[in-house]
Amino acid sequence: MTQTTHDHVASLVGSFDPADFVVPTGREEQWRFTPLRRTGGLVDGTAVSGAGISLTVEAPEGVTTQHVDSSDAQAVLLGAPTDRAAALAINRAESTTVVTIAADAQLDEPVWIKCVGSDATTAAFAHVVIDVKPFAQATIVIDRTGSTHISDVVDVKVGDGAHVTIVSLQDWAADTVHLGHQRHLVGRDASVKSVIITLGGSLVRLVPTVAYDAPGGSAEMFGLFFAGNGQHLEHRLFVDHAVPNCTSRVTYKGALQGTEAQPSHSVWIGDVLIRAAAVGTDTYEINRNLVLTDFARADSVPNLEIETGEVAGAGHASATGRFDDEQLFYLQTRGIPAEEARRLVVRGFFHEILQQIGIEQLQARLVARVEAELEGHGV
Amino acid sequence: MSILEVRDLHVSVDADGESRQILRGVDLTVKAGETHAIMGPNGSGKSTLAYSIAGHPKYTVESGSITLDGADVLAMSVDERARAGMFLAMQYPVEIPGVSVSNFLRTAATAIRGEAPKLRTWVKEVRETMEQLAMDPSFAERNVNEGFSGGEKKRHEILQMELLKPKIALLDEIDSGLDVDALRYVSEGVNRLAATGETGLLLITHYTRILKYIQPDFVHVFVDGVIAASGGKDLADELEASGYEKYQKSGSSA
Ligand SMILES: Nc1ncnc2c1ncn2[C@@H]1O[C@H](COP(=O)(O)OP(=O)(O)O)[C@@H](O)[C@H]1O
Ligand SMILES: [Mg+2]
User: Fold this and answer.
1) Fewest C-beta atoms under 10 Å: which of A28, A120, A152, B232?
2) Tens-digit pLDDT profile for residues B80-98
3) How do residues B212-248 score in pLDDT, each as one tens digit?
4) Sign, Cα dihedral of B21, B172, A328, A287
5) CATH of domain B3-250
6) ipTM field
7) Do A334 and B90 touch (CB under 8 A)?
8) Which residues sit with Cβ closer than 5 angstroms to ligand 2, an ion?
9) Residue A204: φ, ψ to 5°
10) Would you list the domain boundaries of chain B?
11) Minimal-distance CA residue to ligand 1 atom 17
């Protein structure tokens, strides 16, 4: 491993040793949007570890949970990270939590991984590996709440023919800082649906990545974020098509509101790379942002690189717009008060994402959270 | 008995930072049980009149008054006007992605009636009204106006009107872009409401076509932001025969 500050995410070389990565200055492409001074030593590694996080796994039959050393074969299932924060997270995590879903298991209940923060004055590091064995079907919810400064890595290996839905909730308290990586490795004819919902936290920077192990894999990446009250919410996706006949769909929707005293900022980066070998790739990515007030900035950068002439489909779209006053007027002419009309429109805007979760009770909780956020009572 | 009174209404619109006068003194009285047709050429200000009564923020009332049963409509917000009994069927209904028709209708009915309608009777009421408008039940699960055909949009407007039972309904070109079948269903809906005698209807149209299905009690010719002439059904017949030209000339020389 050589030290690299190379800008292209695809050319980054991996290492488990944080010392192999230079400390980012904020000028790098990967970090240029992130307010590094607010990351509290999670990136440079100066953060002092505390006991600010509790991680529990509630799972139905067919699922086993183990805690292993970070050098264990099960812990390194997805290979070396290509990012200093991720390397630090794995390196400094007390142990790696390995959740294994047995081959052919058809889980009728979701696996709940609860991550509860209780201390934002010290740092927490966590590494979770979810190993979905071939032909299993499972839904996994990672439910993050509370106050903490955390850097974590969640690795998801989707075995051949397996179908996985993984819901990741950032329902943090207002003071939380969260740097996260969620890596997916998709097997032959396997599918993964990722739904990432980011509502809470002061600074949340997530890097969901997808790679394919073999042909026939499919990845659907959904995301919802609502940035208000000085929040910086950043989602940087990277889908690496290196094998033939795989598909990817990326759909992220964000809403933003801010005040002069507390402007909010969202960043969405969608890097999709179709390498020369990945013939027959079918990909589409879209990010739509709804700006509700002044003092809110949405950066949205789709980036599609195609190295083969034989793709089945490739496209991207990005649109950031103001709240539509004509929608508001229409609803008001039906007697619906302005406040309620705004709620209805925003709820409608997010419906496409929330319905992907498929867990009624959780969807209701998130609708309520979005509405609280709208009313400014959110974190 | 409800009464809408528009008096000497002057309205301007902000276009590219410049204020443009559109309505130049409109006088109009619509009572419950009456059907008025406002007819006029494109650009004469018909939609502006409808939007101004409904309270669209783009239109500025420079002078004049609008009252509903004596209450000052201009002092009300858009939703207050609707709750006071006004309804606007729009020329171009707006899409609301992710909001289903059934959710939208129930939210609107709850707002207008002041309490949530009882679920059992509500479902029946919606189903029956939809049937009368020849709307498939699956329509209720679609998102508001998203991907609707022209006819579906207008039927959806009439569905809302019938469910919300306004005191005064403004229908802005409810007939435009409709095939004969849709025009018939839409007209039947309007006639059902008119027959209750409890709603005053203001039918804004460019063509006389819809007047074959809906009998107006009063016809007003609208030109250059004013009512240039008023009369009965025979005025519509005259417009059908000789067009707006006569009124436009007098309008421009005035
Ligand atoms: N929102 C608006 N912005 C700018 N100009 C407008 C707007 N609404 C109406 N107008 C102008 O006012 C005039 C009357 O328009 P409108 O009321 O739509 O007429 P009609 O409905 O009779 O066709 C037109 O010249 C139109 O261009
Ligand atoms: Mg018009």
Assistant:
1) B232
2) 999 999 999 999 999 999 9
3) 999 999 999 999 999 999 999 999 999 988 888 888 8
4) negative
5) 3.40.50.300
6) 0.96
7) no
8) B 47
9) -130, 125
10) 3-250
11) B45
